[in-house]
Design brief:
Length: 428
C-alpha cells in the first residue's frame, strides 16, 4: 500500500516528492504510541479567525488592547502556525482538525458532516450531510449569501417549514435541522450505503454576491445521483420559500459522508470536552470523540461552563466565534472589540490554573480580505517548560520572533502533550 493511500489522487504524487508531508502523515501514529495519562489539565482557546493583516499599519490583534494576553505571551512559547500548507487558505474544518493534530490532507471532511453532527443529527454510511445557507435571490442572482443574517428564531421556523413540505425526494429521506442565524443542515439518507466519492460535489454557493447560484454537479459517477437529488431539493426549497423577503433560497455547502477517523481518546488518551455555541464546531468535536453538549450564551457563559466541568476532563476546547464573523464582514473595528472582550475575561481561565494554556486561531480572517486567508496564525503556549521571554506582546509580528517560529499546525498537539508531560520518551 502506498504511504499516501487514502489521499486524493491529485495530491498523492505530489507528496511523494515532499518527505515533510509524509512525515506529518505518520506523526499522529507516533504520538499515539507515546501518549501516556496523568492528571494534567489542558485548555485550548480558539479565537476563530484570529490572524489578520494591517490597516493603517497595524493588524486587528496589534490594534486591540490586550494586556492579559500580552503578559502571558511574554512568558510563553510563541509562534505562527500554518493550518494546511504555505499559500493554502483553510476552511474551518481543516483549520480545527490541524489544531487537534489530525493531518487535514489525510482527513478531508466536509462542513456538512460537522454541521449535522453539531446539530444532533445521526449519520450513517447511507447519508450525505450538507451545510446550507438561507440566501436572498432576485431575478436569478444571489444578492445576499447570508439572507441578512436572519435571526435564529426565524431560521428555525423556515427549517420546520422545509421539513414539513419536503420530507423526502424519490427514495431519499430528508432531515433538516436549524442552525445559528442563516445556517441550517440537511441530511439526505439513501436506501443503501454510498461509495466514498458520493459526496464529491462542489458547493452551490457563489463566493460573491451578484452572481447566479451554481448547480450541484457530481464530479464522479457515484456522486451523480446525489447531485440530482440535491438539485431537486434546491428547486423545491425555493418553491417553499419564494414569498420570503430575505431567505427565499438555499445555498448548499460542504457535501460530505461519514468519515473514518480515530477519536481523541484513541489518539491521545485524553478525555476531552468541547465548549462551543455554534453547531459546526460541536460537530467537529464530536467527530473526534469529544463530549460536545449544546450550550448557548456569551463567551463569559462558556468560561463558566469550563469552570463547572474543569474537574471532569483532561482537555478543553473553548471556541470563540465572533472574532471570525466580523473579519468576514470586513468590520475591522468590531473584530478588534471582540479580541479585547476576550482579553478581559482571560484571567477567569487563568484562575483555574491549567497546566497548559494555548490561545490561537484556526485560520486567519483579515478584515481587509473579508474572508479566510492563507496567512500563518499567531499562537502562544503557556506552561512551566517553555523558554519564553522572546516576544513583547501577542501579535502576528511578535509571534514571528518566538521559539516555535513558523510551523505546521498539526505539530501543535504534540507540543501541547509534551508540555503536559503526556508523551513518553521515543526510543532507548
Amino acid at each position: 500500500m502506498s504511504r499516501n493511500s487514502g489521499l486524493p489522487s491529485c495530491i498523492s504524487p505530489l507528496l511523494e516528492n515532499f518527505p515533510t508531508f509524509a512525515v506529518l502523515c505518520c506523526m499522529q501514529k507516533l504520538i499515539t504510541r507515546l501518549a501516556q495519562k496523568n492528571s494534567t489539565k489542558i485548555v485550548l482557546v480558539v479565537l476563530d479567525g484570529l490572524g489578520g493583516l494591517p490597516l493603517n499599519g497595524r493588524t486587528e490583534l496589534e490594534t486591540a488592547a490586550t494586556p492579559n494576553m500580552d503578559r502571558l505571551a511574554q512568558v510563553s512559547a510563541c509562534g505562527l502556525h500554518t493550518p494546511v500548507a504555505p499559500g493554502i487558505t483553510p476552511g474551518s474544518g481543516p483549520g480545527h482538525l490541524s489544531l487537534f493534530g489530525y493531518d487535514p490532507l489525510e482527513h478531508q471532511i466536509g462542513r456538512g458532516i460537522l454541521e449535522a453532527l453539531g446539530l444532533g443529527l445521526e449519520i450513517t454510511n447511507a447519508d450525505i450531510a450538507v451545510r446550507c445557507n438561507y440566501a436572498t435571490m432576485k431575478d436569478g442572482i444571489i444578492t445576499d449569501r447570508r439572507a441578512g443574517r436572519i435571526p435564529t428564531d426565524q431560521s428555525r421556523k423556515l427549517t420546520e417549514m422545509l421539513q414539513k413540505n419536503i420530507p423526502r425526494i424519490e427514495d431519499v429521506e430528508l432531515t433538516f435541522a436549524p442552525g445559528m442565524e442563516h445556517r441550517m443542515a440537511v441530511v439526505m439518507r439513501f436506501p443503501n450505503a454510498l461509495g466514498k466519492d458520493a459526496a464529491d460535489i462542489p458547493d452551490t454557493a457563489p463566493q460573491l454576491e451578484g452572481r447566479q447560484p451554481l448547480k450541484p454537479l457530481g464530479s464522479m459517477k457515484s456522486a451523480e445521483h446525489v447531485a440530482a437529488i440535491a438539485e431537486q431539493l434546491i428547486n423545491r426549497a425555493h418553491d417553499v420559500l419564494r414569498h420570503e423577503e430575505k431567505a427565499n433560497f438555499i445555498l448548499m455547502r460542504g457535501f460530505s459522508g461519514k468519515p473514518d477517523i480515530p477519536t481523541f481518546e484513541q489518539a491521545y488518551g485524553l478525555r476531552a470536552l468541547a465548549i462551543a455555541t455554534y453547531p459546526m464546531y460541536r460537530g467537529l468535536a464530536k467527530l473526534v470523540g469529544m463530549q460536545a453538549p449544546a450550550i448557548e450564551g456569551s463567551v463569559e457563559d462558556e468560561i463558566a461552563f469550563l469552570k463547572d466541568n474543569f474537574d471532569s476532563y483532561d482537555f478543553f476546547f473553548l471556541h470563540v466565534k465572533k472574532v471570525d464573523s466580523y473579519g468576514e464582514d470586513g468590520n475591522f473595528s468590531e473584530k478588534v472589540k471582540r479580541i479585547e472582550e476576550f482579553d478581559v475575561l482571560l484571567p477567569q481561565i487563568q484562575a483555574m490554573k491549567p497546566d497548559v494554556l494555548v490561545i490561537t486561531g484556526d485560520h486567519s480572517t483579515p478584515a481587509i480580505i473579508k474572508g479566510h486567508s492563507w496567512h500563518p496564525v499567531p499562537v502562544f503556549l503557556h506552561a512551566p517548560y517553555v523558554l519564553g521571554n522572546l516576544c513583547a506582546s501577542f501579535s502576528e509580528r511578535e509571534c514571528f520572533k518566538g521559539e516555535f517560529g513558523v510551523f505546521p499546525t498539526v505539530q501543535l498537539m504534540p507540543l501541547i502533550l509534551a508540555n503536559a508531560l503526556r508523551l513518553r520518551k521515543f526510543g532507548a
